[in-house]
Design brief:
This protein has 237 residues and is an alpha/beta fold. It has helices at 31-34, 55-65, 94-106, 140-150, 172-194, 207-214, 222-232, and strands spanning 3-8, 13-18, 24-29, 45-50, 69-72, 111-116, 119-125, 131-138, 199-203. α3 (94-106) crosses α7 (222-232) and α4 packs across α5 (172-194). Bound molecules: adenosine-5'-triphosphate, pantothenoic acid and potassium ion (K). Adenosine-5'-triphosphate is lined by residues 9-12, 51, 95, 117-119, 139-141, 204-206. Homodimer.
């Protein structure tokens, strides 16, 4: 079956199209442009996960794909595949839930799932599929923007380059960029140290940068793999 998966985040929409012959195509865009996209093959099934309301996008995709569309805005209740720890499971971000389900496709045992997106989330998921809780902090871009908008003189000077380095900054932008990078790295490292038996998996827009710095591999498809596992076991959807 050809399947189109869309991951609607707070910054952008990422998609993966798997064709009938199993080839995979990837892309990302603004929510506003997704409905204008031409697909190499008409998907037989379309699954969207969204951490935003996006009513316009929902309506547009319904017009295009009709019955083929499935829109996921919150996690499903507890199941053998995933047991919630939130008293209100619907409040858990659907992307965090999917990243843990996707992690399970790749690995058995205890997992430490890191999604370095607009927000940086870190979740602990036990080998017997119990969500053990997690952390939410601003991601790299959001943390930088908090400083640029919340102070007068910490500014993104156009003549300064973000070196994506942890060395002490020698201009404003580098002090901010290196500082927030170190902050995110230190948070993830503290959890790697505290939970050495949990296998780390890192995804998200800044995941490659963090994974490289921490000597870990990058898993770009965790959320898509989680969606795929839902499609495969469609009885639980
Ligand atoms: N085109 C881009 N737009 C926004 N952020 C980008 C882009 N390319 C890379 N990034 C980086 O990725 C991070 C955002 O990650 P990602 O694109 O995974 O977010 P998202 O899925 O929209 O967010 P979330 O799901 O956390 O709401 C930013 O901190 C930024 O540094
Ligand atoms: C934390 C984000 C923004 C990360 O994308 C998303 O998972 C979300 O909106 N979560 C809802 C709150 C929660 O997960 O408790
Ligand atoms: K995300």
């Amino acid at each position: 079956m050809s399947v189109l998966l869309l991951d609607v985040g707070n910054s952008r929409v990422k998609w993966r199209l798997t064709t009938l012959s199993g080839e995979r195509y990837y892309g990302d865009s603004d929510a506003a442009d997704i409905a204008l996209q031409t697909w190499v093959e008409q998907p037989q099934r379309v699954m969207v996960s969204s951490v935003r309301e996006q009513a316009d996008l929902h309506t547009q995709l319904e017009l295009i794909f009709g019955q083929r569309l499935q829109w996921l805005k919150e996690p499903l209740p507890s199941s053998p595949q995933f047991q919630h720890c939130y008293p209100e499971p619907r409040r858990l971000g659907v992307d965090r839930w999917l990243a843990m389900l996707g992690g399970r496709v790749q690995q058995s045992g205890d997992l430490l799932v890191v999604d370095a997106g607009t927000a940086l989330t870190i979740d602990l998921f036990s080998g017997d599929n119990q969500h053990q809780g997690g952390y939410i902090v601003p991601g790299l871009r959001m943390a930088q923007n908090a400083l640029f908008t919340g102070t007068d003189r910490v500014r993104p000077y156009q003549d300064e380059q973000n070196e994506q380095d942890t060395a002490p900054g020698k201009n404003t932008l580098n002090c901010v960029a290196a500082g927030v990078l170190r902050q995110n790295l230190a948070l993830v490292q503290s959890l790697l140290d505290e939970y050495p038996e949990h296998q780390p998996l890192i995804t998200g827009g800044d995941g490659q940068l963090l994974a490289g710095r921490l000597g870990l591999s990058y898993s770009p498809d965790l959320i898509f793999d989680g969606m795929d596992s839902l499609c495969a076991g469609s009885s639980i959807v």
